[in-house]
Amino acid sequence: MRSEQMRVLIVIAVIALSFIFLFYPEKGRTGSSIFKNIKLGLDIKGGTRLDYRMDLTSALNPDVNTLAEDVRTVIRRRLDTAGYTEAVVGKVGSGLKTRIRVEIPGITDPSAAERLIGKKARLYFGEIVDQTESVEKPTPKYGFKYEGTKWLKVKNKENTWYLIKEDIRIGSRSVKLGGEHITDARPSVDTQRGGYKVDLKFDSTGRKIFADITKKFVNKQLPIMLDQEVIVAPVVQEAILTGSAEITGKFSYADARELATLIKSGNLPVNLIKVEERTMGPTLGKDIINRSLKAGIAGLVLVLIYMILYYKSMGVVADIALLYNAFLLFGALAFFRSILTLPGIAGIILTIGTTVDGNIIIFERIKEEMRAGKTVKASIRSGFSKATVTIVDANLTTILAAFVLYYFGTGPIKGFAITLTIGVIGAMFTSLVVSRTLLEALSPFMRNKYATAEEKGI
Amino acid sequence: MKKDKNNNKKEERKTINGRPLIDFIGHRKFFISISLTLIVISIIFFFARGFNLGIDFRGGTEAIVCMDRIPNRSVTIGEIRSALTTIRPEYKRAKINELKPLAGGSSGRQRFSIVIRDVLSTVNQKTDFEKHIVEVFNTKISPKLNTTIEGFNIVGGFAASDLKKSAFWAAIIGTILLLIYITIRFEFIFGVGAILALVHDVIITLGIFSLFYIEVNSPIIAAILTLMGYSLNDTIVVFVRIRENMRRMRGKPYGEIINLSINQVLSRTINTSFTTFLTVFVLLLFAGSVLKPFAFALTIGTVVGTYSSMYIASPILLGWLQRARVKHARR
Known about the structure:
The complex is a heterodimer.
Chain A: H1 3-23, E1 39-40, H2 42-45, E2 47-55, H3 64-81, E3 88-92, E4 99-105, H4 111-118, E5 123-125, E6 127-133, E7 149-154, E8 160-165, E9 168-170, E10 173-175, E11 182-189, E12 196-202, H5 204-216, E13 224-226, E14 229-232, E15 244-251, H6 253-264, E16 271-280, H7 282-311, H8 313-335, E17 339-340, H9 342-371, H10 376-408, H11 411-442, H12 449-455
Chain B: H1 2-12, E1 15-16, E2 19-20, H2 28-48, E3 52-53, H3 55-58, E4 60-68, H4 77-87, E5 95-99, E6 109-116, H5 123-140, E7 148-155, H6 157-185, H7 188-212, E8 215-216, H8 218-248, H9 254-264, H10 266-286, H11 292-330
Parallel strand pairs in B: 3-8
Antiparallel strand pairs in B: 1-2, 4-6, 4-7, 5-6
């Protein structure tokens, strides 16, 4: 097969593939736009993005990757149970810069979801050292007896504070008991008090500790805490050896279910600190995309017209190449499942520029060759071979810069780097292969007007 | 001897493509001093006036506050500021902007962006803030406003310093990689020229942002990166031509080679820059408010970038190349 025919085939195959990726109806994907297969970023379609940093000082195991995975799983489970199934939980960055990113599309009030994410949900038992009534948080107590104690508010009781010690002393040793020893938590009907309660089951270690504690606490209160709150402080009737416990408190079903979810989804292995929150109202997003899209298309049309006015028939080639690369870029975005964000649109604008530029470089070279008196066919051939060096050098430096951006950039800048890289590779392909195919097909109809002008005696 | 050369040059290459050669090199001292002056002025602005840094870089909270439009009376920024001040005195310095309704948007309501330095990181802090806003707007402005907060943008100090740090490292590593690539493909001095032109473009563009006190945020960074890409592109295209002509015109004075190269690619430079300018200028005129500063940066950038690739990047090479040739000849 001759290389020209090969080129035509590749040109057709590539654009056909792009169209398939762009328009092939994927399962479970609906949308009103024609570009259904391109995912839009939250800054375009609206929604809330929450970024959390992990407070590593609060973690037992400081391995960032394992922690991040655990945090993701826990948050995912919590959001799923609460019905935020469309939310995306991801990890961005690496090492100490790792962030947990939660993206919740569309909803107007994200605080319910945020409340669920932010809770560390550490369940633990403790000892009541002291108690008091106060509107404000009481001042901490000092002294040997109060070491490791803190004042915690009691749920559903106004102004009641317990001074809680997490280390429970049993004889000469002290023990801790927390949610990590719980294997199951589920809501159930509280037949004695009414409402709902949460049933807990301990693992074997937890069962032993719990038995020891309850032996010591008979007829005394054993408080159960969730994070910074005492949920309930029941009086232990007798030692419990079976390894099951219950949290009572006349909960509503929803509350009991949320509590059970939080306990069972595991406590977060670290404290999460929110570092960033972004909201883009869907209407705000739609305004921006519509207007900017129109402006972008208007600019593009002006460029298309200018190219035809300036370069005549070669301008038509440039215009086809430009549209070709646009579809190629969108097809690639659909294929890689990239998310289109505002900086991504910036990358597209740059891509349009690069494609036009590639063609201009080629056309100017061809003109130069024509001025030197070569035939149209020869001008195209040597014009391309000379322009190739320029285009490759110019675009490889851009790709190099894009890689650096991808590596060091955060979220939106990464998106910019991705569209830029895809776009620039596409621009090189369109300029060097697509435009060449078109120009060579067109060459029999082109005249070397410079040669004739020179012959006329300039 | 020198005179001879000049005569030769004039005889050989007076015109190109039917138009006279433009002398880019001859006036290089003039243009380099103009650029140096602009850079110095920009740097003075950096220190004297500083930047209008968005919450991306400074940390803080932006609240999008919405209220109903009461007939014949629109809420002013001054009213909002004095209402805010009663919540907390330091909110006096809050940044307040009205977000103009766009055609077809929800124009029945007025929308303001209020930026404060506090980082409202918990749900409770946010609901408290919203409560205060609604309360204070109802009492100080009008109870019929039906004020709501459409959304928050919150950036913690940690995230802001993170962004600064990664921008710093991207710049350093990017510079080193570019120098390596250009040294391999061209010569080391070409890399220096390209980087100096980039620094020139970025400093002057930032200088204009400081002068007009336009907010610098993440999209602006993307715009500056884009203009760096364009400027670098322009510069490399000229360099490729210089490299080609250096082989073809061996022994000719460098000034002549460089000047001819810039002239040869001139129509490409102008056409590319013009089409780019067209796109971003239309964007600047008609795009939504979020993209406007972005388009502004790009519009400035195309002009500055085109200028620097013609008048700065290549002329800088001249002195160095000539010195290198003298050294080479002595050896």
